[in-house]
Amino acid sequence: MSKKISLSGVKPTGRPHIGNYFGAMKQFVDMQDEHQSMVFIADYHALNFIQDGKEMKQKIIDLAIDYLAIGLDPQKTILYKQSDISEHTELAWIFDTITTMPYLMRAHAYKDAEAKDKEISVGSFNYPMLMAADILLYDVDVVPVGQDQKQHVEYARDTAQKFNHTFGQEVFKLPEAKILDEVAVVPGTDGRKMSKSYGNTIPLFATLDEITKAVMSIPTDSLPVDAERNPEEDNVFKLHKLFSKSDELFNLREKYEKGGMSHKESKELLIKNIDAFIAPLREKRKLLENDIEFVMDVLKEGGKRAKMKAEKKMEEVREAIGVKLY
């Protein structure tokens, strides 16, 4: 029985943090053993945010390194750049011709931008069609997304159905959303969801100094050391749940509940555990930074493999819409 195809797209928009890792990146790596996995760098989507050539180039390379450093295996996963596959934009245009403006105006991102009185670019307005093309080009079975991104897959399904109905052929498979685990909500250093916009992140490849600075900045209560505490209300303990082993976590919980655990002791243990987790990733990333040729080869090879699949699907599409004459 052949493996199901899973596809994930990631915008190259900056340095990842541990919230990104536990919320999505880890699942992409975990899925590559049981799925025929595809992960693409969504550089054309990123053009809506990054309009500086040098910056874009660096962020694409950085993102490729990040994913290889956390364990994405080019033998198991096709890692490629969206811009290397011209069929993405070709198919997006074809979808544009069967899509109405009121339908696109229902997209969450459009509504958010409109509510903030932002001047909306055509690219931002139209991105659901490029996203539908990203997914439908590859006969994808599963698209792992967070709950807040479920609409992207619904748009792809709607578009597949509309195309199939309009042209009277079953050209596109309907993908399923795989909602990522609720571990996705990783607490930041201030207790809120970890997010760059809140400035409460711990970088995924942080140095020991950066980890120490971030953890020591976590706000805590002013109760005396021997006071009994509810660990579930403590921002440091919430992060311990991700980085401490089960027996250690049990002991920690007991110390919190009985009293006798100082915030300093708890923070120092958290720093040690986070660094133990990050150190091997940091080292792997350093090695990859010094072997850019390997990273480029991975992207080129991934692009070739994805291109073959995309070309095959576009032949079907061109036949269905009647533009293929020879």
Explain this structure to me?
- α3 (53-69) crosses α12 (263-289) and α10 crosses α12.
- The radius of gyration is 23 Å and the shape is elongated.
- By secondary structure, it is mainly α.
- The protein folds into 2 domains: 5-185 and 292-321, HUPs (Rossmann fold, 3-Layer(aba) Sandwich), CATH 3.40.50.620; 205-285, Tyrosyl-Transfer RNA Synthetase.
- The strands form 2 sheets. Strands 1-2-3 form a 3-stranded parallel β-sheet. A two-stranded parallel ribbon has the order 4-5.
- It has helices at 18-31, 43-46, 53-69, 87-96, 101-104, 108-115, 122-136, 150-167, 208-216, 235-243, 246-258, 263-289, 292-321; strands at 5-10, 36-41, 77-81, 142-145, 176-179.
- It contains 13 helices and 5 strands.
**What order do the helices and strands follow?**
EHEHHEHHHHEHEHHHHH
| Arithmetic mean pLDDT | 93
Level-1 CATH class name of the largest domain: Alpha Beta
CATH superfamily of the largest domain: HUPs
Shape: elongated
Q: Which percent band covers the strand fraction? A: 5-15%
Structural class call reads mainly alpha
What order do the strands of the largest sheet run in, or round the barrel if closed?
1-2-3
Question: How many DSSP E strands?
Answer: 5
Radius of gyration over all CA atoms, rounded: 23 Å
* Overall structural domain count: 2
CATH architecture type of the largest domain: 3-Layer(aba) Sandwich
State the share of residues found in helices, binned by percent: 40-55%
Ranges where pLDDT stays below 50 over 5 or more residues in a row are none
- Count of helical regions: 13
Main sheet overview:
3 strands, parallel
The CATH topology annotation of the largest domain reads as: Rossmann fold
Q: How many angstroms does the end-to-end distance come to?
A: 35 Å
